[in-house]
Amino acid sequence: MSNRGGKRENAGRPRGQGKFGEPTTTMRIPESQTATIKSFLEAFQRKRANGDRDTSVVNIEENELLIPEISAQPTLLPLFATKVAAGFPSPADDHVEKRLDVSEFLIDHAASTFFVTIKGDSMIDVGLLPDDKVVVDRSRTPGMGDIVLAVVDREFTIKILDYGANKMPRLMPANSSGAYRPIYIRPDMQFEIFGVVIGSFRRFK
């Protein structure tokens, strides 16, 4: 009987000896999102090595890079025509303007969209609070005044894209306390707009 073939005992890399120092698992992801997930994992390693700087970065330590899953059967919920400052509109059918699928409302291009979690308070003046989920679309062309997910010197940050006095791009915080300064993009910096923030959502309970 041949003793070749099959799995050898203690073969392969020891558990916990990989790049992240812990056991790994196999997962299936959309092919279009491969580069996105690799970039976030690289950022995660750098944050472990250098410490966590609060720049409203993506909270990837808690696995909050989320790929939207679009159901073949959309969930259509009532959208009431009545607009109220507080309270709840009448549930009568004649007040229902239409049925709304939340995924359709939030997502324009599913193959290029992902969700990330806000960390820090540098964007609170535009309604982005800690633990909010933001919707990022990589297919959008960023314009001045857009809220973007940018990579600056290999660190992720969410800021408003703007031009400074010298027409050089800069990333502006949205916190009137003055605790955060603009990030001016110099020619010697590594800089990339990773995607445009097109929306956000949060839960209260």
From TrEMBL:
<protein>
    <submittedName>
        <fullName>DNA polymerase V</fullName>
    </submittedName>
</protein>
<feature type="compositionally biased region" description="Basic and acidic residues">
    <location>
        <begin position="1"/>
        <end position="12"/>
    </location>
</feature>
<dbReference type="InterPro" id="IPR039418">
    <property type="entry name" value="LexA-like"/>
</dbReference>
<dbReference type="InterPro" id="IPR015927">
    <property type="entry name" value="Peptidase_S24_S26A/B/C"/>
</dbReference>
<dbReference type="Pfam" id="PF00717">
    <property type="entry name" value="Peptidase_S24"/>
</dbReference>
<feature type="domain" description="Peptidase S24/S26A/S26B/S26C">
    <location>
        <begin position="78"/>
        <end position="198"/>
    </location>
</feature>
<dbReference type="InterPro" id="IPR050077">
    <property type="entry name" value="LexA_repressor"/>
</dbReference>
<dbReference type="InterPro" id="IPR036286">
    <property type="entry name" value="LexA/Signal_pep-like_sf"/>
</dbReference>
<feature type="region of interest" description="Disordered">
    <location>
        <begin position="1"/>
        <end position="27"/>
    </location>
</feature>
